[in-house]
Amino acid sequence: MEERKLTVRAVERALDILICFTSDTDLGLTEISSKIGLHKSTVHRLLTTLEEKGFVTRNQATEKYRLGMRVWELTANLSQEDDPASILLPEMERLRDLIGETISLYLRDGKERIRIQAIQSNHAIRRVAPVGMRAPLSVGASSKVLIAYANEAMQAELIQSLDWTSETEKEHYIRQLSEIREQGYATSFEERESGAAALSAPIFDRSHHLAAALSVSGPVNRFSLQAMQDQAPLVIEAAKRMGKMLR
Hints:
- The protein has helices at residues 2-20, 29-36, 40-52, 69-76, 84-87, 89-99, 141-148, 152-161, 167-183, 225-245; strands spanning 27-28, 56-58, 64-67, 102-109, 112-119, 134-136, 186-189, 196-204, 210-219.
- The protein is α+β, with helices and mostly antiparallel strands.
- The chain has two domains: 2-74, Orthogonal Bundle (Arc Repressor Mutant, subunit A), CATH 1.10.10; 84-245, Beta-Lactamase.
- Strand 4 and strand 5 (112-119) form a beta hairpin.
- Helix 1 (2-20) crosses helix 3 (40-52), helix 6 (89-99) packs antiparallel against helix 10 and helix 7 crosses helix 9 (167-183).
- It is globular, with a radius of gyration of 21 Å.
- It starts with a helix and ends with a helix.
């Protein structure tokens, strides 16, 4: 039993190392050790195994690690049949060409949202949306959509978990969620990033369950509140088409 526990712990630690690379491309031994809270000697042993298996590679000059080709081999074999990031890509490109701003696709993961796909705007000045980025559910148009259309139990849990400066702020947020469900979309204006605005609509699968949040974002001087209101029907319609594409 003890041997099994140790084996599982080693797997968990190795996966923690790989997860470090979701936010950084190149990491040194000390950086990885600090991120996952393990002694450098332990991390070094795990990295050696991961390197031997091709999951990480080490730059001899800088002594830094990055993801290896074995990771890309695995992702190449991901089933696209149920992967919204792949299925919805053409429709996202179509919406980008219609509106001209950056298009993103978000899923909720616990108390965070993660961007699983993005099509960048063709404008010289644009909001860059890196795939794989995680953000808290407390702010942002897509966050509001992911909470507003969650089932009642989950919605209550998520609202309770957010930090509120006052009960009034919490009540205002709950009213916002109700308005989002009525109008079918959410907006945000410099809530998370200065100079950035976003519009988001829910994507439902054929079982009428929330599948993802479709988001359009751009600089506030171009993507104004009026512009968002004007483009909302296009985003809602695109979200409906995307929902029909999902099994």
